[in-house]
Amino acid sequence: MSRMHIPPGQWRYARACMVCSIIMTQAHFRADGCPNCPFLDLKGSPEAIETCTSSQFEGTVAVFKPQSSWVAKWQRIQELVPGTYAVKVNGTLPEDVRQAMEDDGRPLIPRDGTATEIE
Fold first, then answer.
1. What is the spatial distance between Cα 106 and Cα 36, in angstroms, rounded to a whole number?
2. SS (H, E, C) the chain
3. What is the value of pTM for the model shown?
4. Is residue 118 pLDDT above 60, yes or no?
């Protein structure tokens, strides 16, 4: 069974990364960090998990072959790892994380539905 799998009774512990929108349990984020966003340093950091992920998200998309999926392209996750992703993630990344991403040249694609095109 995949580490990305969330058993039915564990969905109440599910959280979505505010940067890439992957959905994992809080325990998975603590044990492994975000597979798409290692720069967030979520592994072993409950504080970072609390500020960079959200338990408030809408819709789910399971993606097995992101490079060939039209849904992955529509969600702008075609370059990310296979997994379950939120369609919309509610929450705001801390300003210091946003600034660090900008300084490193990492584009921030809003996952909260506020933008429909990459700026």
1. 12
2. CCCCCCCHHHHHHEEEECCCCEEEEHHHHHHHCCCCCHHHCCCCCHHHHHHHEECCEEEEEEECCHHHCHHHHHHCCCCCCCEEEEEEECCCCCHHHHHHHHHCCCCCCCCCCCCCCCC
3. 0.88
4. no
